[in-house]
Amino acid sequence: GGTIRFEKVGFAYDPERQILRDVSFEVPAGKTVAIVGPSGAGKSTISRLLFRFYDVQSGRITIDGQDIRDVMQTSLRDAIGMVPQDTVLFNDSVRYNIRYGRWDATDAEVEAAAALAQIDGFIQDLPNGYDTEVGERGLKLSGGEKQRVAIARTILKGPPLLILDEATSALDSATEKDIQDALDRVSRGRTTIVIAHRLSTIVAADEILVLEAGEIVERGTHAALLAAD
Ligand code: ADP
Ligand code: ADP
Which family, according to the similarity comment (predicted)? Predict the structure, then answer.
């Protein structure tokens, strides 16, 4: 659960240049809202505000009615899972990277998360193909494979809120479809914000917001927006 609301949010990194203007939307508990728009529109800024890397300058953001300025940053980090654009992994096995932050997870739980993220055959490998302690062993993972590790870690962490930032951008189109299916499964029942450049990569959003130059210029279902294109 957890309903996220942006109420007339305004934000600027620099007073000379407004980045978000009166941005209002709601992600009802368990639903998925996608934010699409060109590079520089302010999409990543929205996720930075949710984590309170910065605080809003006007309006407010609430989770279940509580202004997030009253919520500790550490609590927000626990509550929000993020699959970033570029995943940086620890130079330890994939299994270690999946378990990171959930040290109590059983091997079976780690393997179930790995299976859901379609990590097959490289769970023992080192993401960068080498380890300063043990010497070379394993494969150098591709961007897509690293992203699957990030997805598996998020699945295992099981946060109530999720942000998927261009989560399939590092993948070729065949694996993109597989990962998209895994992400759809992960986001089911969690309050999810998907950030994407292209409408075509979003399949399971309940609502899509089009953000341009910091303003929501259009909103609707996937089908309605594709028809209007
Ligand atoms: P998007 O995710 O849609 O590509 P961003 O939210 O990353 O857009 O960025 C929106 C605008 O804010 C861009 O013009 C970007 O250059 C600017 N910006 C992003 N981060 C900072 C920052 N830390 N300081 C100043 N400007 C920033
Ligand atoms: P991306 O969304 O592409 O992963 P970022 O969110 O870090 O990358 O930045 C988005 C845009 O904001 C990029 O164009 C980047 O150059 C710009 N940007 C990031 N940080 C700053 C900053 N501190 N000052 C100005 N522009 C920034």
Answer: Belongs to the ABC transporter superfamily.
Q: How many CB atoms lie within 10 A of CB 40?
A: 12
> pLDDT tens track of the chain, all 229 residues?
699 999 999 999 999 999 999 999 999 999 999 999 999 999 999 999 999 999 999 999 999 999 999 999 999 999 999 888 778 888 888 999 999 989 999 999 999 999 888 887 777 777 776 555 555 555 678 777 888 898 899 989 989 999 988 666 666 676 777 777 777 777 888 999 999 877 766 667 899 999 999 999 999 987 777 777 6
pTM of the predicted model as reported, rounded to 2 decimal places: 0.80
Pick from 6, 13, 4, 21: nearest CA to 53: 13
Half-sphere exposure of 2 (CA within 13 A, CB side): 22
CA of 39 to the centre of ligand 1 (A): 9
Q: What is the DSSP letter of 65?
A: T
Q: How far is the CA of 49 from the centre of ligand 2 (A)?
A: 14
Using the atom order of ligand 2, give the atom closest to the CA of residue 86: 4
Nearest ligand to the C-alpha of residue 49?
Answer: 1
ipTM: 0.65
